[in-house]
Amino acid sequence: MSNENFMSAKAWPFEQARAILHRLDIEKKRGIARGDKPVIFETGYGPSGLPHIGTFGEVVRTTMVMNAFIALTEGKIPTKLICVSDDMDGMRKVPPTVPNPENLKEYLQKPLTDVPDPFGTHESYGAHMNARLRAFLDGFGFEYEFLSATALYRSGAYDAHLLKALERFDDIMAVMLPTLGEARRATYSPFLPISPTSGRVLYVPMIATDAKAGTITFEDEDGTEVTLPVTGGHVKLQWKPDFGMRWAALGVDFEMFGKDHQDNAPIYSRICKILGGQQPVQYVYELFLDEKGEKISKSKGNGISVEDWLSYAPAESLSLFQFQKPRTAKKLYFDVIPKTVDEYYQHLAGFKKQDEKAQLSNPVWHIHNGNPPSFVPPVSFALLLNLVSAANASDKDILWGFIQRYAPEANPKDNPALDDLAGFAVQYYQDFVKPSKDYRAPSEQERAALADLVSRLRAVPETEKTDGEALQTLIFSVGKDHEFENLRNWFKAIYEVCLGQSQGPRFGSFVAIYGPDETAELIDAALAGKLG
User: Fold this and answer.
1) Facing residues of 254 across strands?
2) I need a labelling partner for 304 at 20 to 30 A (CA). Which of 220, 243, 249, 456 fits?
3) Which CATH class is domain 437-532?
């Protein structure tokens, strides 16, 4: 593809890639030498809980921006995606889902990497959760470098910037204090010492700071006055100063975060500058909502996990959901899955027909880094769901009998993506569609029209039995002949009476796959009241 198209592409990852390129140009004009330093894309992870759909979204979206930047610069500028775990944070509460949670109460407020692993597989709770994160990201094939905050603090990687933070203590306080309430201001310190006696992360005021000696003095939990160096992992920074310090210390060039960080972003940027860094390009995304329009929360358990989504749909559909309108609040619940799956394949089908410029705005370019697969299933996910319903299919082998009638060349071995879709359809139907089915009796007009449709379906010539367009025309004709004012109501009646739902895929296509004779039998059963 031409660089001109990359420079004018309107998809949001390319907009962010151009913003990063502009930032590099400004650095160059200011005489800031990067040498061979790669452009750093960062994502953060709080290891107090398991990786979740927000973790996936942040990494997949950041990867999309990085891939756009690589395309934009023709790979001439090195890049790196880093994932930083805030595993030195104190454990604020014991997760109720861990084994024997009562055993962890004595470790409250200790760094997560100093808390024993209740699962017994790693040297600490933080290490266990970090391993879960890496396995999670590796499962999706992300390329990244993992960094532990504990290791960064204790190895000395942050030492230079911690000393600078101590030297510019008053400047940081001037940024932070106006953002705090009166009581909090009286005790606030950007430095959180790790108690040498209890090992806990302490939220205490500073008695003294000594930039020349590189130390802070505070009152420990037992009332003794303690002086510690700010280097070597003896302290950590409060989360807002830590955010800005991390940008400066790691040379971060791009980071995205949720809208809940938006008000604090100027604070992160100011502290980054105080510590001699250049604030990165920042991208704020909206948070997901549940079906009631409420913010999704891990503690409430009102969202969908990545594992939930992948039980009913391919991973590419989840990537599409993350790509679409990231700055718009979207409802994330199980009803969106079938629609998103079909949208993914619609974008995939359209990709090869588009010119280069249009392809760069197609989500599948970003989902597959410019090289999307060519396979598009011959049937939609919505249609598979209706086939499961009509055939009362309990496994995907039953579906394959109908699929092969419509597409004789298709088979599970050579079409694994379609085979997976069939399995997803059976599972989704059993868990979400079947329990909510609501068949209704037809009106007199609808009964007459449905009986007429049965007769016409049984008379369909052999040559037209898999012709979706011809069958759709036949169904339209029945609706017109029975004088439905709005043909949409005719199709709605078919779905509600015969399938127990108010909408579905193109019914002609359904008949082509399910079979005209089988559809006639289904309608007869509905008219006889045998489907409820």
Assistant:
1) 41, 281
2) 243
3) mainly alpha
Percent of the chain scoring above 90 in pLDDT: 80
Give the pLDDT score at 54. Answer: 84
In Å, the largest CA–CA distance within the chain is 95
- Cβ contacts of 492 within 8 Å, gap of 6 or more: 502, 503
Domain 3-184+237-285, CATH number (from 3.50.30.50, 3.40.50.620, 1.10.3720.10, 3.50.50.60): 3.40.50.620
Query: What's the token pair of residue 338?
Result: 């079938």
What is the Cα–Cα distance from 344 to 364, expressed in whole angstroms?
7
Q: What is the mean pLDDT of residues 295-318?
A: 80
Which residues are CB-contacts of 335 (< 8 A; sequence separation ≥ 6)?
291, 432
| H or E element in which residue 348 lies | helix 336-351
Q: How many residues does the chain have?
A: 532
Question: What is the H or E stretch that residue 237 is in?
Answer: strand 235-237
CB proximity list for 238: less than 8 A, separation 6 or greater: 176, 188, 189, 190, 191, 192
pLDDT for position 189: 97
Helix (H, G, I), strand (E, B) or coil at 498: helix
Contact 34, 24 (CB under 8 A): yes
Residues 452, 458, 463, 467: is their CA dihedral positive or negative? positive
Nearest to 20, CA basis, from 63, 54, 68: 68
